[in-house]
Amino acid sequence: MQIYKVGGAVRDRLLGKPVTDIDWVVVGASTEDMLAKGFRPVGSDFPVFLHPKSGEEYALARTERKSGRGYGGFTFHASPEVTLEEDLIRRDLTINAMAEDDQLNLTDPYHGQRDLEARVLRHVSPAFAEDPLRVLRVARFAARYASLGFTVAPETLELMRQLSESGELQALTAERSWKEISRALMEDQPQVFIQVLRDCDALKVLMPEVDALFGVPQPAAHHPEIDTGVHTLSVLEQAARHKQPLTVRWACLLHDLGKGLTPEEEWPRHIAHEYKGLKPIKAVNERFKAPKDCQELALLVGQYHTHGHRALELKPSTLLELLQSFDVYRRPQRFEEFIAACEMDARGRKGFEQRSYPQADYLRGAANAARGVAVQPLLEKGFKGPELGEAIKRERLKALKAYKDTASA
Predict the structure, then answer these.
(1) Which of 116, 118, 83 has the alpha carbon at shortest distance from 8?
(2) Do both 19 and 97 map to the same domain?
(3) Is 5 within a domain?
(4) Do both 290 and 387 map to the same domain?
């Protein structure tokens, strides 16, 4: 029995990055051998065991063969005869197909170290094209390591393109897709993830609504970058630069989908794109079964982001409607995330990256003014039921008018 560290732990150590998760592979052992040493079985598809003391996962070396469509369409074979090299060849990228023993001796049959040094993401074998999830994984790794200068090898991008055209991407479950998408959006350069998906024609399969934004012009006065798709990538880049949470990044990706529906004869204007965008935003939300908080914020940002940009011009009544839509009294964090998404949208324009966004503090102040209205005095005056609701609304509107007058003074 021989035990090796494999995959990401080896890769990140060689890159000088912190090692968080460690994957172990066991060569020359059977299930009975593992049980005899006190390991506990947990794998359903193939033999995986928990270490009796550390609780870490140890997998028996295995081979795999394509037997159906999608991520799960594989038959696995694990036995003491499977070699380390045979286990490594089934992995996605050469930089993930290295192993080391407890003396840090490297086993690198597919030249992963060479590709690490060359900053190349390259597939290990033609079997790469058998697993559609790898399209998303490679795009995610491209986003993670873009700052180190990594790019996708042309021949790997070609295999990803073949996968995109094969219909295999449609076999991915919403859960598997969302897991990769959400992780990719939280990388340092999530815009690279979207760009790589577009480069291999996967974006038009997975998110045709986002792909449709590229080549759609906007007024140069407001958007010097002009192209709506380029703008979306820039907004996503700003969201990562400002360490925004997943909810905000997801909303940033989808906020302008309505512009992809504007007839060409109306370009570069996009009248009512906020409302037109709600249907495609909902479609993307449902396709990937995004978490409820991501879905809700994406729809609200899509509908109201121009209100955010025009906050200083809004009438008190419109401002109150905006605050009510976000339920700022019970869900203050959601409104804060809306403000963040609006700011990222404003900064995601060529030349505006460092520009201040006074609307943010103005909106926060408006929310505080509305929240500051006390309900108890109205109850003491005898208001109740629908009448109480109307009285609270009147007082909040009064507070917002006073706030606006003060802010304008």
Answers:
(1) 116
(2) yes
(3) yes
(4) no
Residue 391 belongs to domain spanning: 372-408
Q: Does 289 share its domain with 381? A: no
Give the C-alpha separation, 47 to 178, whole Å: 26
Tokens coding 336: 């804060």
CB-based contact 236:249 (threshold 8 Å): yes
Residues 48 and 75 reside in one and the same domain: yes
Based on the domain organization, do 85 and 59 belong to the same domain?
Answer: yes
**Position 47 in a domain:** yes
CB 56 within 8 A of CB 5: no
Q: Treating both helix axes as pointing N-terminal to C-terminal, what angle do 133-145 and 174-185 enclose, rounded to 10 degrees?
A: 10
For residue 78, report the phi and psi dihedrals to the nearest 5 degrees: -120, 130
Same domain, 345 and 379: no
- C-alpha to C-alpha distance for 210 and 194, rounded to whole angstroms: 9
Model pLDDT for residues 379-407, shown as the tens digit of each residue:
989 898 999 999 999 999 999 999 999 99
Name beta bridge partners: 62.
78
Q: Give residues with Cβ within 8 angstroms of 56, minimum separation 6.
A: 22, 24, 50
Hey, what are 250's tokens?
């997801």
What DSSP character marks residue 348?
S
Residue 191 lies in a domain: no
Measured from the Cβ of residue 174, the count of other Cβ atoms closer than 10 Å reads 12
- Write the secondary structure of 205-270 as one string of H (helix), E (strand) and C (coil): HHCHHHHCCCCCECCCCCCCCCEHHHHHHHHHHHHHHCCCCHHHHHHHHHCCHHHHHCCHHHCCCC
Residue 32's CATH number: 3.30.460.10
Residue 349 and residue 388 in one domain: no
Residue corresponding to tokens 């597939």: 123
- Whether residue 229 lies inside any domain: the answer is no
Query: Into how many domains does the chain fold?
Result: 3
Per-residue confidence (pLDDT) for residue 63, from 0 to 100: 86
- Residue 72: per-residue pLDDT: 53
Would you call 59 helix, strand, or coil by DSSP?
A: strand
Output the CA–CA distances (angstroms, integers) from residue 87 to 8, 53, 84, 156, 212, in the order listed: 15, 25, 5, 20, 40
The residues of the chain scoring below 50 in pLDDT are none
Query: Could you tell me which residues come within 8 angstroms of residue 315 by beta carbon, excluding any fewer than 6 positions away?
Result: none
